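Example 3.2
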Amino acid sequence: MHLIRKSDASLVEKETELRRYYLPDRDPLEVIETWMEPNTSQEAHYHQVVQEAMLVLEGEVFVEETVSGQSNHQTLNAGDFVVFDRGISHRIANNSCVHARILHLKFLGERKDRTLFVEDKNDASYRQKLTASEIEIYTQDYRHFDSMIWQVPAWSSAIFSFSITIAFLLLANSAEIENLLPSINARISASIFLFLVFVILLLLLNVFLRFRLHQRAAIRPKRRNIPSPRYMLPGQTSLLLILFIEVAVILCFFLITVGFELMCAIGVAVMFLVLGFGYVERSVRQLSSSLRASPKNSPRG
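Structure, written as tokens:
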């Protein structure tokens, strides 16, 4: 049970409204009791993350939303309930001569960071009342990607080390293995094994890239002014390069086991490394540039 007494709820007074906030500590839920002055209106706004619903407790409330330039409005009386879709601009107004009392219900959804409640509105008095300092955007999705993205190179390196060791042992002891198991060709077995490892590492490379692209698209914390010497590569770029090197080495060993000459196999592996890494890095940078250039079309509140 999560109990919030009326005396413990934060009370915020605005020019035309009085709001009481009920904020459970752990649940992705926010409940606001609002008293609107007669003949007042909120500014049109939208919520990108939060799902908002509203129940009219007393009085009469005018509700308007705008979709693709088309306005849709309704008048709600006591007991009427409405749900606003994410990303849709809406506003409410009290056009009557008496006060209106409204209950707002706002939902984040499971596994979301509660700081998004603060970031997903433009209520400066609310931010000043409920936060001691500016809260940086740091969503649960970003934390998820941030934690997962560092695990993929560890998995890849473990598989790479294991597979290289097994391949060397298999080739070094091929005569003994073929004597013990006459139906097995050690060289062909090593080729098949290295090809499977090559495919697995490519899949892990794809997973790392997907996490990285999602992380770029997610709302992230403000960047700090951390010194970055020119000779140092960014962390994710370095890890991506390590993944490509591991895949290229496995590819080289696979080509050698199937009969390619050493220099030819090295050349193919180096070409794969240079072209693949260059293409992926260019794609990531283009995505980052497009995200930075995307405009914000409407206010968020």
